[in-house]
C-alpha cells in the first residue's frame, strides 16, 4: 500500500473524502459530552438496579468477581470495536464490519439481528416503563403510558440527533447520580456508623456469611449470563460513529473509560450494598438498591429506585428507536433491505426506518397486553443471545481486520486493541462459555430457544434475496485503492 493510498483513506475517515464513510448523509450532531454519557448509559441498565438481586441470591458476594471478569471481557470487546471504528467510522458499525471482513451474508444477518434485538428490547422496556408509572398512580392504564412514552420518544428521534443525544445525556445522568449517591451514603454508613444499619454495616459482611464463595465456584459461573445481560447495549456507542461531531476524538475517549465505569458503577456499588446488607437477605425480584435503602432507613428509597429504573427503561427504548432506524438504512443502502428505508429527512434522520420500528414497538406492546403468555417470553429472551451475537461479530471482524492491517493491505487503526489477537480470542471463548452455561441453566435456557428459528428465517430470506439481487451479496472491495 502506498503512502498516498493511506492518506486518501484517512481523509475519507476524517470526513474530507466523498465516500459513504465520510458522513453517509447524517448530521454530525453528537458532541463529546453526549457521546460520553451515551457510553456510560449503555453500560448501566435495569440489570444492575433490578436483576442483581437474583444474581446475589445465587452467588453471594462472589458476584463482584463475576462482574469484574465480565467487565474485563466487555473492555476487550469495546477496544476491538474501537480499533474498527478508528479504521472506518460508519453508522452501520459492526454490521458493516461483518459485511467487509466476513462477507455480505454475515453483514446481512448481523444487521437484521441487531435491528430485531432493539425492537424487542424497546417493546419490553416501554412496557416496563408503563408498569413503573403505576407505582405512583395505579389508575393510569399501562397501555396509555406505553403509548405516550413511545410517541414522545418517536418524535424526539425525528426532531434532531442533538435532541436524542441530549435526552440520553439526562437519562444517563439520573442513573449515574443515583449510583454515586448510593455509594457515598453507603461509605458514610460503613465508616461513620450512622443510620439504622450503622451498627451492623461492615466490609466483613463480604466474607462472614459462608465466605466469599458461599455457593461455590459453580454458583458464581451460573450468574454469568445475568451479568452479561446487564452489559447489553454497551456497544451502542459504535452506532453513533456516523453522527459523532469528532469521532477520532470522542469515540476513543468513550471506549477507554469503560474500565473505570464498570469499577465504579458495578463493582463499587455492589461492594457497598453487600457491606450494608448481608447477601443472605437478598431475594430474586427485589432490587438490591431498595434493600440497601430500606436497611439504612430511607423510606423514599423505593420511590427513588423506581424513578431511576423508569428512566433506565425509557433510555433503552430511546436508544432502540435511534439504532433501529440506522440499521435499516444501512441494510437498505447495501441492497439487503427495502429501498424504502434508505431515504433521509431534511435534517439527516432515517425517519422511515424509525417510524417502521416505532410502529412495531407499539404493536408488540399491544400483543404483550393481550396475550402475556410464554410465547412472548420466548421472543423477549431472544434479546440476550442476539445482543451477544453482535459482540461475536465485532471480535471476529476485528481479528480479520488486524491480520489484513498487519500484512499492509489496510491502514493501521489509530486505536489498536491491546493484547490482540489474544484478548479478542479470550473474549470469544468467554462468550461461548456463557452460551453453554445458558443451555445448562433451566432459567436461562429459554434465551436459546428462538435462535434456531431466527437462523432459519435469515438463511431462507438470504437465498430468496440473493436470487432477486445477486449484486447485493457480492463481496465488495473495501481497500483504499478501491
TrEMBL record:
Residues 1-16 have a biased composition (Basic and acidic residues). InterPro entries: AA-permease/SLC12A_dom (IPR004841), Amino_acid_permease_CS (IPR004840). Its main location: membrane. GO terms for biological process: amino acid transport; transmembrane transport. Keywords: Amino-acid transport, Cell membrane, Membrane, Transmembrane, Transmembrane helix, Transport. It is found in: Cell membrane. Residues 1-25 are annotated as: Disordered. Pfam families: AA_permease (PF00324). Residues 35-469 form the Amino acid permease/ SLC12A domain. It comes from the Bacteria. One of its GO terms (cellular component) is plasma membrane. The chain crosses the membrane at residues 37-56, 62-81, 101-123, 143-164, 176-197, 217-237, 258-277, 289-314, 349-369, 375-399, 420-440, 446-465. It is a multi-pass membrane protein. Belongs to the amino acid-polyamine-organocation (APC) superfamily. Amino acid transporter (AAT) (TC 2.A.3.1) family. This is Amino acid permease. It comes from Streptomyces luteoverticillatus.
